[in-house]
Specification:
Chain lengths: 113, 112
């Protein structure tokens, strides 16, 4: 069965530090992969997505993610975190028709000044 | 441009009461529509999706139902709420053949 695992429930980093959020997936075919961000009490905003081609994907707000097929991973990175990046981050995999997304449990990011 | 509206933003309802959450999309036609639920400390679970008027598919058995009376309107309902129905409900839309889902701002439902 398809699944998405985000091993880190909470992560705290200092402002200006680098960030990597982990995502591992289980999927029977080449997946569509997404990272979404959710600010408190808000809906989800797409940060970036991977369908095919270059395995390093650039997104909004300075985020990037790298698809590694051999590791079934799609980790999200940012070289320098800003206080406004504090939010919850969700990794998702396209599960088939109609873009039915399967989400990970999310990683809550806190940023210390 | 396309927009998605979801209301109400927050709702507190007693156990056993009915529920109606509404989602509408503007600026597009014949979208795929989705209802997700986010329980506390958990990821998002797909509840229902719809590919057209009166065409609803349920992903998980539950106390909820969905309807799509118009092309760009998607309603989530319950006849009698349970405590376990509490959560954050998100509506999303996608263009046919599209590769990205767009989410509404969500409804925080607390059943007391």
């Amino acid at each position: 069965a398809q699944s998405v695992t985000q091993p880190d429930i909470h992560i705290t980093v200092s402002e200006g530090a680098s960030l990597e959020l982990r995502c591992n997936y289980s999927y029977g075919a080449t997946p569509y992969l997404f990272w979404y961000v959710q600010s408190p009490g808000q809906g989800l905003q797409l940060l970036l997505k991977y369908f095919s081609g270059d395995t390093l994907v650039q997104g909004i707000k300075g985020f990037e993610a790298e698809f590694k097929r051999s590791q079934s991973s799609f980790n999200l990175r940012k070289p320098s975190v800003h206080w406004s990046d504090a939010a919850e981050y969700f990794c998702a995999v396209g599960a088939g028709g109609y873009n039915k997304l399967i989400f990970g449990a999310g990683t809550r990011l806190a940023v210390h000044p | 441009s396309q927009t998605i509206h979801q209301w109400p933003a927050t709702l507190v309802q007693p156990v056993g009461s009915p529920l109606s959450l509404e989602c509408t999309v503007e600026g597009t036609s014949n979208p795929n529509l989705y209802w997700y639920r986010q329980a506390a400390g958990r990821g998002l679970q797909l509840l229902f999706y719809s590919i057209g008027i009166d065409q609803i598919s349920s992903e998980v058995p539950q106390n909820l139902s969905a309807s799509r009376p118009q092309d760009r309107q998607f309603i989530l309902s319950s006849k009698k709420l349970l405590l376990s129905d509490s959560g954050f409900y998100l509506c999303a839309w996608e263009n046919r053949g599209g590769t990205e889902a767009f989410f509404g701002q969500g409804t925080r439902l607390t059943v007391v």
